[in-house]
Amino acid sequence: MSEKLDIKELEQVVVRFSGDSGDGMQLAGNIFSTVSATVGNSISTFPDYPADIRAPQGSLTGVSGFQVHIGAGQVYTPGDLCDVLVAMNAAAFKTQLRYAKPDATIIIDTDAFGPKDLQKAEFKTDDYIAEMNVDPDRVIACPLTTMVKEALAESGMDVKSVLKCRNMFALGLVCWLFDRNLDVAFNFLREKFAKKPAIAEANIKVIQAGYDYGHNTHSSAANVYRIETKDKKPGRYMDITGNKATAYGFIAAAEKAGLQLYLGSYPITPATDVLHELSKHKSLGVKTVQCEDEISGAASAVGASFAGALAVTSTSGPGICLKSEAMNLAVIMELPLVVLDVQRGGPATGLPTKSEQTDLLQVLFGRNGESPMPVLAALSPTDCFYAAYDAAKIALEHMTPVVLLTDAFIANGSGAFKLPELDKMPAICPPYVPEELRGSWTPYMRAENGTRYWAVPGREGFEHILGGLEKDSKTGAISTNPENHDLMTRLRAEKVANIEVPDLEVLGDKDDADLLIVGFGSTYGHLHAAMDELRAAGHKVALAQFRYINPLPANTAEVLTKYPKVVVAEQNMGQLAAYLRMKVDNFVPAQFNQVKGQPFVVSELVEAFKELL
After folding, report:
1. Could you give the dihedral angle defined by the CA atoms of residues 236, 270, 393 and 379, in that order, rounded to the nearest 10 degrees?
2. 414 beta partners
3. What is the pLDDT of residue 56?
4. Which residues partner with 287 through β-bridges?
5. SS3 state of residue 286
6. Residues 6+ apart with CB under 8 A from 448
7. Rounded distance, CA 16 to CA 296, Å?
8. Which of 113, 125, 343, 412 could form a disulfide with 407 if both were Cys (CB 3.0 to 4.6 A apart)?
């Protein structure tokens, strides 16, 4: 008679998959995230890629990780430390244990802990568990590779292909540990490998083997855990990465505006996935061009905008430097353009696979001349959809280039995304030149809100030329007149300054907080979690997270000067704090700055903020 399992209800759990960069940890983590999102759990993920393109197998620098935080209620971060660590080899065990809680369950493949593996991972003894000071009772040590080979012994697959399925055994074991239904995982694999059904079925067989291993041996050593969603909201959900959400947001905006979508881009980590995703959707009128360099990607988008498309160019920090001249061309021509900057570690090539918020001052001021642009920053992977939509709406309705900031953390991370209804999204109404101006219209004639009218080529009577030289405000002819240049500079600045954006929202103890936490963009989840922890401990704390950075919300000064103590927390050396000091009189905040290429750690934020309190 089998032992009756004790299924414990959990509020939340953090799982970290880790192994060689060729071990498929990202795929295993993505499938587990999808399985969890499908049952309504809130999720937040963090793929942690190695910086090496292909480090030697089994080396410490080649370890790839994927962390997912699953909650019955809302979760805001991928979690500081994991409850379950999957370590597919000795190097993963050595480098990733630092991300595990003291009582975490650790799953290892004992077949990948041989003498050579231990030597590569720089272990000093063959008792690696004792050397890492880990309680053996916390370790699920299984000959994972051997069991995968046994499961696929009759598949006819070669050894290399069989070994690629090891990640699915670990996934199956984790799915058993958290009482997950495997049907979603099976459907995911059949869809992913639709053109290679034999590969799909082999992976499915291995997932089932991992699940059965856990069931037959009760490998958790204690319990099976279940996370039931508390507040189920009806709708269609998917697990979506920030880059994919960004691409979908641009598609939705083009559809709503009745325009074709054009992306001119040059591949660069971590923005390339947006190019890849949009290139799949030609049936929706999307045109993508992989250009020969960054400036041509931006310049081609300027041309597409002149022709009447919703034009986008995508890049990361180094590419923004190279695109700046073409971005300025869109400024002086007053054409709609969305510039997507998926920030990464810098300067120069820096840390291509890591995340920072270090491009803020560059996108605000890093161009010649007076060249103001609206700047938005997405808050989370799922908010990337709405931020992309909003950036496109501002660009099209105000005839201006707009910068949308995301970063590697939210671009590669994912969340449970409720599919929106397009008919409920805000209307997008470009300022097309009205027919009654035929005969009197000139290229820089403006609507009441100061926005230049858009005359799409092909309309008889509205033929015109635009370019990078300053133009006369009345005739559109090239002008070097000092007074005209001063006027045009001010008109462009006023147009951006007068864009209406939502007020800055204050969360938490907004009426009587002793400390206001301020951030922008992707740090929202970590700062929210820190605020929640401080409030639970009895402190009066509030949070204001900037999504709109230029122009700033109208109530910015009111909010920032209302509280006795303010701390600006950002993943740079103080760029937002400097910008806010420039914009708000007598604003002198405390600062919390880290530039590690890694997300904030909530416990570190809490300790730092406690000192301020």
Report:
1. 70
2. 241
3. 84
4. 262
5. strand
6. none
7. 40
8. 343
Among residues 374, 584, 332, the alpha carbon closest in space to that of 497 is found at: 374
- Pair 410, 416: CB distance under 8 Å: no
Per DSSP, the chain holds a count of helices (H) and strands (E) of 21, 22
Taking CA atoms, 563 is separated from 441, 504, 542, in Å, by 50, 14, 9
Please classify residue 566 by burial: count the beta carbons closer than 10 Å to its beta carbon, then call 0-12 exposed, 13-18 middle and 19+ buried.
Answer: buried
pLDDT digits (tens, 9 = 90+) for 154-191: 888 999 999 999 999 999 999 998 888 899 999 999 99
Closest to 45 measured CA to CA, from 12, 81, 84, 78: 78
Which residues contact residue 276 at a Cβ distance below 8 angstroms, ignoring those fewer than 6 apart? none
221 confidence band (pLDDT: 50, 70, 90): very low
pLDDT tens digits along 419-471: 999 999 999 999 999 999 998 999 999 999 999 999 999 999 899 999 999 99
Which residues pair with residue 107 across a beta bridge?
A: 86, 140
How many Å apart are CA 171 and CA 214, to the nearest integer? Answer: 11
Residue 32 CA to chain centroid, in angstroms? 18
